[in-house]
Design a protein that fits this description.
- By secondary structure, this protein is mainly β.
- The protein is 7% helix and 25% strand.
- The chain has 4 helices and 17 strands.
- The strands form 3 sheets. It has a 6-stranded antiparallel β-barrel. A 6-stranded antiparallel β-barrel has the order 12-13-14-17-16-15. The protein has a two-stranded antiparallel ribbon with strand order 1-11.
- The longest helix is centred in the last third of the chain and has 8 residues, at 270-277.
- The radius of gyration is 18 Å and the shape is globular.
């Protein structure tokens, strides 16, 4: 019998080189500052890979207690209404990792979403596990993406939340188009009770870049808010056509996306990834840490600034209709320049995640 695992709700900052802050001023105007160009991870000796222990089931879901808030609004674009959004069809009891689509959607589009070679907008509810990590200082700040792995836990990258006071952080689920305030199903925002970053996280080279965010109250699961599955050992298959979702830029100097977008990225071997990365500014001595995996590398398909902390998910080997989170967007070289996206391997850190959840 195959077991699927669901993750806690994390908070993540966007990856260096794939990271940005979106400020929402008091009048709801949006400011997108230029983040500093982070230094690439430094070369280090390549440690012997250690295989992860076989995963155990996640703890049972707590009863959800909702607290809804309005969505983020970008006043620089026309404010559409909800008429174009259809509440996606849901089959009760299908469990984690189920994408949601409009009931009358052409079934072929559920697989490709259009042209797989370029980024596409998702359907409303297609990635119900996707969350937005927000920070409140003088203004509300968009930090990065994350994934709901249980109703009250988020999985994300450590560089997004490390050294950030938890009282400044909140997590929003059910977001889709940030121009729309009257969605068919309101988004939900929760405060944070606790953040657990990996104890060996290194902010200089982003080794062990993984964190869990525990919410004060669980999210209410509904057609556009649900959890993603965790991977089995050996779930990540080289060449699998996996998907990254986020609101990041569509090019290095491009625009941030109002609507949650997706791009198909196949998993790469460590050898081919390392060979390609060594042709970049990282140089020929660069070593890829055992906790990283790579995906993509085509000129047209890549993550970009604003996508950090978000998921890379693939169809399960045992059930292609279930999506399993394989990676967390960590860092990259530019956007769409032909270099693979580097992600934290979820499978590699499953023992640590399970320990925090227990």
């Amino acid at each position: 019998m195959v077991h699927y695992y669901q993750f806690p709700i994390p908070i993540v900052k966007l990856c260096p080189g794939v990271q940005v802050c979106c400020l929402l001023a008091a009048d709801n105007s949006t400011v997108l500052p230029n983040p500093p160009d982070p230094s690439p991870p430094s070369p280090e000796p390549n440690p012997e890979p250690r295989p992860p222990k076989p995963p155990q089931p996640w703890p049972p879901r707590p009863q959800p207690i909702p607290e809804t808030t309005p969505s983020v609004v970008n006043p620089d674009v026309p404010n559409p209404d909800q008429d174009g959004l259809q509440i996606p069809s849901v089959t009760p009891g299908t469990g984690c990792g189920r994408r949601r689509f409009p009931a009358n959607l052409d079934t072929s589009l559920k697989v490709t979403g259009g042209d797989k070679n370029v980024p596409q907008q998702t359907f409303y509810g297609e990635a119900p596990w996707m969350v937005v990590i927000l920070q409140k200082k003088e203004a509300l700040t968009f930090k990065c993406g994350g994934t709901l792995i249980t109703p009250n836990v988020v999985l994300t990258a450590a560089h997004c939340v490390k050294n950030t006071p938890i009282e400044e952080i909140s997590v929003r689920a059910g977001e889709y188009d940030n121009r729309i305030t009257n969605k068919p199903i309101p988004s939900q925002t929760q405060r944070v009770r606790k953040v657990e970053s990996h104890p060996d996280f290194n902010s200089g080279n982003l080794h062990n870049d993984i964190a869990l965010i525990f919410l004060e109250q669980p999210m209410q699961l509904n057609p556009v808010v649900d959890v993603i599955c965790g991977p089995q050992k050996g779930e990540a298959v080289i060449g699998s056509d996996c998907v990254v979702t986020g609101w990041g830029r569509n090019a290095q100097n491009g625009s941030y996306q109002a609507v949650l977008s997706k791009v198909n990225l196949p998993l790469k071997t460590r050898e081919s990834c390392l060979e390609k990365l060594r042709t970049s500014r990282l140089g020929v001595r660069f070593i890829l840490h055992e906790g990283f995996i790579c995906a993509g590398g085509d000129d047209k398909r890549d993550t970009c600034k604003g996508d950090g902390g978000g998921p890379l998910y693939c169809p399960s080997k045992s059930d292609p209709n279930k999506m399993v989170q394989i990676g967390i967007v960590a860092w990259g070289i530019g956007c769409g320049e032909g270099f693979p996206t580097v992600l934290t391997s979820v499978e590699h850190y499953l023992p640590w995640v399970q320990k925090q959840l227990s």
